Each structure stands twice: as C-alpha cells, then as structure tokens.
Amino acid sequence: MVLTGTVLTLPKHGLVLQQAVHARVRVLEPIDPAGFAGDVHALRDHVRDVIIREKARMEAER
C-alpha cells in the first residue's frame, strides 16, 4: 500500500490536524515472500523499491 499527500495533515510539532488535505492511497499487488528464501533484507529492499517507484508514479500523476 502506498499513501501520498499526508505530509501536511499534522504539521511537525503541531497538535491540530488540518481539515482539508488531499491524500491518495493505492493498494498494490501482494508480494510473495517465498521468492526470497528467508532473506528478510532482500524482501525489505524489494518492498521498499516497489513503494518508492509507485509513490513517484502517483506524484507524477498529480
């Protein structure tokens, strides 16, 4: 799952949520961990790369 547009929802050191924030969420295809033969670091890196690529696509669509 990738979530964008939430950076202004709760400003740094803020205590009040902003009322009008345009956030977007995209649910991606599942990633089967079996293909990583127990290598949690490789799985972590792969998932991170998938999220980064999709986040860039979503931000380019704005």
UniProtKB/TrEMBL annotation:
<keyword id="KW-0012">Acyltransferase</keyword>
<keyword id="KW-0808">Transferase</keyword>
<dbReference type="GO" id="GO:0016746">
    <property type="term" value="F:acyltransferase activity"/>
</dbReference>
<protein>
    <submittedName>
        <fullName>1-acyl-sn-glycerol-3-phosphate acyltransferase</fullName>
    </submittedName>
</protein>
